[in-house]
TrEMBL record, chains A, B:
Alphabetized Pfam families for the sequence: MDD_C (PF18376), MVD-like_N (PF22700)
Alphabetized GO MF terms: ATP binding; diphosphomevalonate decarboxylase activity
EC number, UniProt record: 4.1.1.33
InterPro entries given in the database record: GHMP_kinase_C_sf (IPR036554), Mev_decarb (IPR005935), Mev_diP_decarb (IPR029765), MVD-like_N (IPR053859), Mvd1_C (IPR041431), Ribosomal_Su5_D2-typ_SF (IPR020568), Ribsml_uS5_D2-typ_fold_subgr (IPR014721)
Organism per entry: Tachysurus vachellii (Darkbarbel catfish)
Cellular component, GO, one term: cytosol
Protein purpose: Catalyzes the ATP dependent decarboxylation of (R)-5-diphosphomevalonate to form isopentenyl diphosphate (IPP). Functions in the mevalonate (MVA) pathway leading to isopentenyl diphosphate (IPP), a key precursor for the biosynthesis of isoprenoids and sterol synthesis.
Alphabetic keyword roster: ATP-binding, Cholesterol biosynthesis, Cholesterol metabolism, Lipid biosynthesis, Lipid metabolism, Lyase, Nucleotide-binding, Steroid biosynthesis, Steroid metabolism, Sterol biosynthesis, Sterol metabolism
Gene Ontology biological process terms from the UniProt entry: cholesterol biosynthetic process; isopentenyl diphosphate biosynthetic process, mevalonate pathway
Ranges of residues in domain Mvd1 C-terminal: 198-382
Name of this chain's protein: Diphosphomevalonate decarboxylase
């Protein structure tokens, strides 16, 4: 599958999506292999709005493995990157030995990796999930690996295993000590629920204070509630969530999503010292959603928050215009601050006075920087156009104009 | 014991303290009798700084029971007030029948009640605890009741039962359906730990959004974590806390206090819809305390938060001056905003540069309105000076000048 760009350099470029969990992953039972203490479930977002693009190349002329992330060379020796590289090479070697002893690409060749996100890291979206999924997918295509890639991506960043598939994806925690059954599986494809929409409300450009790796370690060590959540709450909730997705039951999907986000943040607060990812703006968004739903006596909108203050909103297409207008009303943006809604265009809507009164909150100017309007999307894929490679024929990042 | 102020009006005035739980009460197993789902433990604060004063009077000339709170007449028929009145009268009647069939005060006489706090209700301190303790204590003195008053006060407001005693007070959840074993007990008297100090950091004058009665109801109905906390976490924690208090082990006392506050707020967040009592300023205080302790590699200061954003800080006398100065540094008060520290005077202290650097937070001007410096104090007591009665000889509130 690898495209040969010159006699000496084999190269491929792929893209991979961001995913947003509706049943959250928080806590590892094995730090090395990245095995979680509970299963989780996510929605893969569409790459038209949010994606990582990665070019991988290999050549006998490369002196060493190298990686560039968002234009800056990074240390290739970080353990999680090495886990993924080693594992992909091991799988490639295994396949060669089995099937194709004379393959064109020598596995001892060094690789160059160049990766960019089309969204700011500061937006607080889980760029590591898309990043590791893209890395593992690209390398597997370059080196001709045909194995369960979610197991490899998981060893880069836990939630990355869910970005290996499109649509609605379950990460089964598994039972085995070697992690071979801790895999992602598609629950439903991206075409399953076409009316579902996703809004990312970018609350703040602040970087998160506590990284998720160390945060979840402290939680596992100190929170009695986290253990109870993982052992007793999540299993039943996963079953309910899978049924809600399969049956396109929005109200149940939405309620479980909100409850699980709240419980994840509750276990962060039960951690010692406590971890806070929600801020006062996040809390206002939560109140806004509950009052909006209460006004309609129907669960039309759900929020979820990862390890940061940004809200991700799930809702059905028919309610997007009105809800966006509601957000704009209660978080009036800067008038000269560029476009407030990015992504899929949103028609303007008028707000019923009763709705504004029912929400009844004091507006918070500039509380939300912008909204990304997106939907459910497919998994990683290769980019056919060779002009889109991020590395040049020399194996070094192209100069961006 | 009742003082007769005129031929026709019997009157007594008492005061009662505020208490601040270090193992929190959140959730009832019986709404009517106010029986909790877990035991709790609190510190009674000194009445020199924070107290409720209540005058109760009875007379054959009063037409009906009446109550004035903080200068305003309130509805005497609210169920919890009626629970306390009925229960005290029942106990008084029982005693009369047993001991003193010809007592001077006829129990069919109506009562007038007048109560004031020496702290603003808006300060978010649990005024209902001091209020009900004071009401029940005053009525018991007026009517000559000699029973376990914590059982009566509990039926006014759960945490009020702990304000019936000074020092360190446990509210045992009990097991019986009729609540007769759900009583407060003194774990240690107010003289037990003379070095212990309490700072109330008044974060905001906002009234709490969700009242604790309805809040804990929703928590019991919706939070899986709350049940686990009550059943599995609190029992062991209570034992540890009692040992820490008895042994004056500040580090353990402090750590358990912080963990329990965090866990209470975690169960609020796990409630659906979620309940938030902490705001961004509360979180900054939490971070400040952890960084302060970390700097000294010793737990010198503990925070706890009730159903509101105000922090209550426990620490030892020797560290008060420096910690107050630290708070002043990171939450600089308005220069013309009156005294920043009320209550027990605090000497000024200089702050080591290393401490400021170690805390390393951006100062938040006016984040904290003022601090009340207080200590552990005694339980309710009668006021001897009859000029301090809040009701006049006519049984109506005295005009305040």
């Amino acid at each position: 599958m690898a495209k040969t760009c010159s006699e000496k350099v084999s190269m491929i470029t792929c893209t991979a999506p961001v995913n947003i969990a509706v049943i959250k992953y928080w806590g590892k039972r094995d730090e090395e292999l990245i095995l979680p203490i509970n299963s989780s479930l996510s929605v893969t977002l569409h790459q038209d709005q949010l994606k990582t693009t990665t070019t991988v190349a290999c050549s006998r002329n490369f002196q060493e493995d190298r990686i560039w992330l968002n234009g800056k060379e990074e240390d290739i020796n970080q353990p999680r990157l090495q886990s993924c590289l080693c594992e992909i090479r091991r799988l490639a070697r295994k396949r060669r030995n089995d099937e194709d002893p004379n393959a064109e690409i020598t596995l001892s060749h060094r690789v160059h990796i160049c990766s960019v996100n089309n969204f700011p890291t500061a937006a607080g979206l889980a760029s590591s999930a898309a990043g590791y999924a893209c890395l593992v997918y690209s390398l597997s295509r370059l080196l001709g690996v045909d194995a369960e890639l979610s197991v490899v991506a998981r060893q880069g960043s836990g939630s990355a295993c869910r970005s290996i598939y499109g649509g609605f994806v379950q990460w089964k925690m598994g039972e085995r000590q070697d992690g071979t059954d801790s895999v992602a599986e598609q629950v439903a494809p991206e075409t399953h629920w076409p009316e579902l929409r996703v809004l990312v409300l970018v609350v703040s450009a602040e970087r998160k204070h506590v990284g998720s790796t160390s945060g979840m370690q402290t939680s596992v060590q100190t929170s009695a509630l986290l253990k109870h959540r993982a052992d007793r709450v999540v299993p039943a909730r996963m079953d309910d969530m899978i049924r809600a997705v399969q049956g396109r039951d929005f109200a149940t999907f939405a309620e479980l999503t909100m409850k699980d986000s709240n419980q994840f943040h509750a276990t962060c607060l039960d951690t010692f010292p406590p971890i806070f990812y929600l801020n006062d703006i996040s809390r206002r968004v939560i109140n806004l959603v509950h009052r909006y739903n209460q006004h309609y006596t129907e669960t039309r909108v759900a929020y979820t928050f990862d390890a940061g203050p940004n809200a991700v909103i799930y809702l059905l297409q028919d309610h997007v215009a009105e809800f966006v207008q509601t957000v704009r009303h209660f978080f009036p943006p800067e008038s000269n601050g560029g476009e407030f809604v990015k992504g899929i265009p949103v028609f303007s809507a008028s707000l019923p006075d009763e709705l504004i009164r029912a929400v009844g909150m004091e507006p918070t100017p500039k509380g939300i920087s912008y909204i990304i309007n997106t939907k459910v999307g497919p998994g990683p894929c290769a980019v056919d156009d060779p002009t889109l490679h991020l590395l040049g024929a020399d194996g070094l990042p192209k100069k961006t104009p």
